[in-house]
Each structure stands twice: as structure tokens, then as C-alpha cells.
Amino acid sequence: MKIAVVAANGKAGQLIVQEAIARGHEVTAVVRSANKTEAGNVLQKDLFDLTKEDLAGFDAVVSAFGVWSLDTFPQFTTSMEHLAGLLAGSDTRFLVVGGAGSLYVDPKMTTQLADTPDFPEEYKPLAQAMAKGLARLRSFSDTKWTFISPAADFVADGARTGAYILAGEVFTTNEAGQSSISYADYAIAMLDEIEKGSHIKERISVLGR
Description:
The protein is an alpha/beta fold. The chain is built from five helices and ten strands; from the N terminus they run βαββαβαβαββββαβ. The protein has a single domain, classed as NAD(P)-binding Rossmann-like Domain (Rossmann fold). Strand 5, helix 4 and strand 6 (144-149) form a beta-alpha-beta unit.
């Protein structure tokens, strides 16, 4: 498959590129600065300057774009708007590296994890920004999107175990009552979803076993 990874220089992006290459896919790293990934194909361009022509011909486009400060939080929504808009009406799948704070804690899906009393206060603005982005993404009826939330503990340097639990919109823990996944195992789940295409226009979540 032909796969583009936007914001490929980030920690998640690099591992998604690595996993895709290991599986034999043709990968293009979309980066703003010098390429740090293993990808042989590189498009050096700001995300917000990308055009329909830049993303034409790919089977899947992954957004690994991250936001880390109050002034950049709105860009989580605007980046998805831009990319989803470019891919609207095409057969190209659009997959987003999301967050756990917007997962629901009740089966009726009325309360999000970020709204619970024990959710860390310092992470609430980021979680709320990601929730807004997901809500906006859901409005793109003609884009083949999938939003993949990691576990609550998203471990950048965690081990690649090769195993994970696939869940849905509701916050889930493993048999030990834990919600954790390494970036490497998340990358496996991302590539599995790209290859299988099982959850188009859905938000799913993944966690370690």
C-alpha cells in the first residue's frame, strides 16, 4: 500500500513509519523540517500548506500531528479539518493519532474520561482540544476517517510486545485493571487498521494486554 504519514518526525510518527516499512508498504514521510524517519520518500512541507495534489494516489494518510501548548491546541482541530477536507470524496483513508481523554466512561456515552474527578487537571485542556477535534472529524461524511485513541498511559519508549486489545468508544482496561500501551504497539494497531480497513468513520481505542 501507499501510505503517507503526516508529522512523521514525531515519536509516534517515526514508529508508524518504521512499522509500515517493515510490513513492505511504500511510505512517504510528510515533515516540516529535515526527515528523521526511515522513509525513502519524503515530502518536506508544512501540514497546513498541503494540497489535494500532494495527497493524491495514497491508499492511506495518517496524521500523527501533536499539539502541546495552550496556543497550539486549536490546531488539533484545524489540522484535521484541513486534511479531512483534502481527502473528502476520495477513496484514501484518513487515520488520526488521537487521545484517551475523549473516551467515554459509561455505556450510554454521556461522560468522557477527561470530565471525571480523577483526571489530571493539567491534561484537561489537551484532552478537551482533542475531543473538539474528534467532534469536528465526525462531521466529515464524505471522508473515510478513523480516529484511534491510545490507552490512558501512552508510553513513548515502552516495549514492542506485538500484542494489544482493540476496544471502542468506551474506556477499557486490561485484566490487571490497567490502561497502558507503548507507542510501538500503537503503531502495530495503526497498521493493522490500515491494512484491514475495519472501522471506517469510527473512533476505536487500543490498549496493551
